[in-house]
Specification:
GO terms for molecular function: magnesium ion binding; NAD binding; oxidoreductase activity, acting on the CH-OH group of donors, NAD or NADP as acceptor. The protein is of the alpha/beta class. The protein has ten helices and 13 strands. It has helices at residues 24-37, 58-65, 121-137, 200-206, 218-235, 248-257, 269-283, 321-333, 337-353, 367-382; strands spanning 39-41, 70-76, 89-95, 105-109, 112-115, 117-118, 142-147, 180-181, 211-214, 242-247, 264-267, 290-294, 299-303.
């Protein structure tokens, strides 16, 4: 910000589960700072697979505590950097507070793991409305809902079961799916093997009419079916925007074959994580795509594709493009249009010239080389 003359003061915090800089105290300080500023710029808070902490990582807990329900990734081709598909311009909107990332899983028997997929009407409607509002504001013409609601009926012996709130859930070794829980009365859990059943409480509050839990084969049909119905209902309120639907596996293929057919895509949590990274690969990889997450009160700017770049730590080879473009987007959000354009134009100019490129883009330049080149391109053009 000093080099570009940006009138922004940063409150810096270091939170990492890789470098042993993570604790409840640090997380609370980060959350307090973000609540005060309302806007944040964050790097990837990577949790390695061998991490032995809680099921919910610090990254997930941060998003939940701030209710950052909408993740937005703008996938756009970079001038001067040729890929198989050029001139791409599409937006991926992901619901990121429920779904498979509920962190509600347990070992019901040795070698048997059960996981809950949470899908609620309230949050499905909220992300659908966000997607259509975004399309309207950005003057985009089409929204595609991506889902997996096409799973056939469950196999014999695996039937739906309707459970009243006064009844207990099936035990951990039960073969019955958990499909729908009315919420007129307190919810009871019969198993103590879940890490923290209290995680269900916010979902019951968010969904007054009930709580939908995913389990077994039919959960995809019911859970994604609810998400799809909510998108269809919201779409009726926006007649000027074209709406269509696509199954997640077909969407992956279509993105590779013909990504130009897409404009705005909206989807549940896990599918968004996959599509974000797939789409990033179409325009240059995880190092070049910016992203942002929103709640009703907060805006957090970050990398669009959540690649850990663990192999690049300490080697000065990471591509800073995504973070620089995210910074520019943050400045635009703060109504600092001049400074936002200054930074984004400088980054794109460096890539277009092509003399300084990091290894992931086919070059041999270091992170420091790229940053220096961006700084050099700030001054001649803008006279800062």
């Amino acid at each position: 910000p000093q080099v570009a003359g940006v009138p922004v003061q940063f409150d810096e915090h270091h939170l990492s589960e890789v470098q042993n800089m993570a604790s409840e105290e640090i997380l609370d300080r980060v959350l307090d700072s973000m609540r005060k500023s309302k806007v944040a710029l964050i790097g990837k808070i990577h949790t390695p697979m061998e991490y032995k902490g809680e099921l919910a990582s610090y990254d997930m807990r941060l998003r939940r505590k701030l209710d950052l329900f909408a993740n937005v990734v703008h996938v756009s081709s970079l001038p001067g950097y040729k890929t198989r598909h050029n001139n791409l311009d599409l937006v991926i909107i992901r619901e990121q507070t429920e779904g498979e990332y509920s962190s509600l899983e347990h070992e019901s028997a040795k070698g048997v793991i059960e996981c809950l997929k949470i899908v609620t009407r309230a949050k499905s409607q909220r992300i659908a409305k966000f997607a259509f509002d975004f399309a309207t504001k950005k003057r985009r013409s089409k929204v595609t809902a991506v889902h997996k609601a096409n799973i056939i009926a469950p196999v014999a012996g695996c039937r739906n079961k309707r459970i009243r709130a006064t009844q207990q859930l099936p035990g951990p070794v039960s073969s019955h799916p958990w499909t729908w829980l009315p919420a007129e009365k307190p919810l009871q859990l019969c198993t103590s093997s879940f890490p923290d059943p209290a995680h269900l409480a916010p979902l019951v509050q968010a969904e007054p009419s009930g709580l939908r839990l995913g389990h077994s084969l039919e959960s995809r049909k019911l859970g994604d079916g609810l998400f799809l119905r909510c998108c269809e209902e919201v779409a009726e309120l926006y007649p000027k925007i074209t709406f269509d639907t696509m199954i997640i596996d077909n969407c992956c293929m279509q993105l590779v074959q013909n990504p130009y057919q897409f404009d705005v895509l909206v989807m549940p949590n896990l599918y968004g994580n996959i599509i974000d990274n797939l789409a990033a690969g179409l325009v240059g990889g995880a190092g070049v795509v910016p992203g942002e997450s929103y709640s009703a009160d907060f805006a957090v700017f970050e990398m669009g594709a959540r690649h850990p770049f663990a192999q690049a730590v300490g080697r000065n080879i990471a591509n800073p493009t995504a973070m620089l473009l995210s910074s520019a987007n943050m400045l635009r959000h703060l109504n600092l249009e001049y400074h936002s354009a200054m930074i984004s134009d400088a980054v794109k100019k460096v890539i277009k010239v092509g003399k300084v490129r990091t290894r992931d883009m086919g070059g041999y330049s270091t992170t420091s080389d790229f940053i220096k080149s961006v700084i050099d391109h700030l001054h001649p053009h803008y006279g800062v």
